[in-house]
Design brief:
Elements (H helix, E strand, L loop, with lengths): L21 E5 L7 E7 L2 E12 L12 E8 L15 H15 L10 E11 L4 H15 L9 E8 L2 E4 L3 H4 L5 E7 L4 E8 L4 H22 L1
Parallel strand pairs: 4-5
Antiparallel strand pairs: 1-2, 2-3, 3-5, 6-7, 6-8, 8-9
Length: 225
């Protein structure tokens, strides 16, 4: 299948370095300290943050910093007629861990010792880039909750199809099994907090794809701010 036409257009009409339309909203979720919805094209995610609050399980309490927990899930209707994954499956557990570690890199946990912060993210509609959308929604919800952070963290992916680097893959592009690089950064500090790659790339191509993803992260940061 040709993912980039002779005219330089992708299957959804975008240019290779063009991001999907973004939409970010602060919303109200009952009893949550902060919550937000983030959309990247047709991918839509909601995030809710609770805390900092007293640690429920005292045996897990950390004396000199806050404990961050994260739970990722997909709504049953999020993928249409595609296969639905049960809650707590291996992929959900892995993504929960990735989001938690990425958020821990930006939260000033030492300012909230012996407390816990719970982050819940749910995919309402999936069309590629769900991991990045979850991170972007979570950072908005953390800011809405007033959680102190080094900086916001933003995330974006880029891939390599038909010998062309592509920014912000949709589901059709992402499901090819081709190289896909997901990056998370602290924009003001210019630090990378997340780097994941599916499939192998030559070093020079990898550097180009990664830099494209970083530029996407910066564009999202400018949009959020």
């Amino acid at each position: 299948m040709e993912y980039v036409s002779h005219d330089g257009l992708r299957i959804d009409g975008r240019r290779p370095m063009e991001m999907r339309q973004l939409c970010a909203q602060i919303v109200d979720v009952a009893k949550a300290d902060g919550s937000a919805v983030f959309e990247m094209g047709k991918t839509k995610v909601i995030a809710a943050v609770y805390g900092p609050r007293e640690v429920q399980n005292k045996s897990q309490q950390i004396r000199d910093q806050a404990m961050v927990r994260c739970e990722y899930s997909m709504a049953n209707f999020s993928t249409g007629d595609r296969m639905r994954r049960p809650k707590g499956d291996r992929r959900s557990t892995e993504i929960s861990l990735v989001i938690r570690q990425t958020m821990e890199a930006c939260i000033l946990t030492h300012l909230m010792p012996q407390s816990q912060i719970d982050i819940f993210v749910q995919v309402l509609q999936a069309d590629g880039g769900t991991r990045s959308a979850c991170i972007n929604a979570a950072t908005l919800a953390l800011a809405d909750a007033g959680i102190p952070m080094h900086d916001i963290v933003t995330s974006c992916s880029a891939g390599y199809l038909n010998s062309t680097p592509l920014l912000d893959l949709n589901y059709t592009e992402d499901s090819t099994g081709g190289p896909d690089v997901t990056v998370g950064i602290l924009p003001k500090l210019d630090e990378v907090t997340l780097l994941q790659m599916d499939a192998k790339l030559l070093v020079d191509i990898f550097e180009n794809v990664m830099q494209l993803a970083i530029e996407g992260c910066k564009a999202i940061a400018n949009y959020i701010r």
